[in-house]
Amino acid sequence: MTTWVGTSWKMNKTLAQARDYARTLAATDQRRWRGIQPFIIPPATALSTVSEVLGPRSPILLGAQNAHWEDAGAWTGEVSVPQVADAGAQIVEIGHSERREFFAETDETVNLKVAATLRHGLTPLVCVGEPADVFARGESVAHVLRQVRAALDGVRDTSGVLLAYEPVWAIGSGGRPATPSDIGEVFAALATEWGGAVRGVLFGGSVDPSNAAATLGVDGVHGLFVGRAAWDVEGFVGLLELVASR
Ligand code: PGA
To answer: What spacing in Å lies between the alpha carbon of 2 and ligand 1's midpoint?
Structure first.
């Protein structure tokens, strides 16, 4: 089974920095990454540049960090799925906790964006995860299953969907890296409810070389979605090699 290893650059990198990263990645011997599906999710400004540098036959998939549910129109500040597809995106990240917390993303808008992404033949990467207080109360499974059900409500064929379980308490510089026992129950529940029905379930939140292998060892984890540890291309390549050598 394919192991997904990807990174979102979040709100980082100029075009020159994006070009350097993509050039190094394209020049790396990719034959060693057998069985791995790498992907990178640059900011919207750098999508077409990264797409051009990687070229049309690159095995590395490209994603957008967000896209609106309408195809076009008077939506100042937004980009649509057809626009990010035109710029080279094959994946659309939807519902990251930073968007839910700071940009009023709701289960309803996540659901609309999933539908729009599938309508245009792209892969939605749907992020779900509970905040620290929900984890502390032992209610992670219910929270995450509710978010996934809402995101995929009305979607007839979910086989193109990627899920990323990213507990809010594990994400970012203030986050606490998760242990396998922290996340096992949620992955088991996701496998039971969505296992055969989606393309894969990834884990994200403070993933780095010290915890990547243990995280991938958890039943039901099909990949890693990485922030800070892959913002340098050496970090990303290091993780790809680490996963390849497991
Ligand atoms: P992090 O980000 O690896 O920097 O914690 C992960 C994410 O937000 O997906």
So the answer is: 21
Q: List, by residue number, the catalytic residues.
A: 96, 166
C-alpha 73 – ligand 1 centre gap (Å): 32
Global model pTM greater than 0.85:
yes
Pair 175, 205: CB distance under 8 Å: yes
Summary mean pLDDT of the chain: 97
- Name the E strands within 49-138: 61-64, 91-94, 123-128
Q: Which CATH architecture has domain 3-244?
A: Alpha-Beta Barrel (3.20)
Q: What is the best residue among 101, 105, 207 to mutate for testing ligand 1's pocket, by most ligand atoms within 8 Å of CB?
A: 207
Q: Which of 7, 65, 206 to mutate to test the pocket of ligand 1 (most atoms within 8 A of CB)?
A: 206
| Protein residue with least CA distance to atom 2, ligand 1 | 227
CA distances for 211 relative to 42, 234, 239, angstroms: 24, 17, 10
Average pLDDT over residues 22-35: 94
All structural domains of the chain with their residue ranges: 3-244
Q: Is 6 in the pocket of ligand 1 (CB under 6 A)?
A: no
Q: What is the pLDDT of residues 190-204, one digit of tens each?
A: 999 999 999 999 999
Q: Is 161 exposed, middle or buried (0-12, 13-18, 19+ CB in 10 A)?
A: buried
CA dihedral over 124, 214, 240, 16, signed as positive or negative: positive
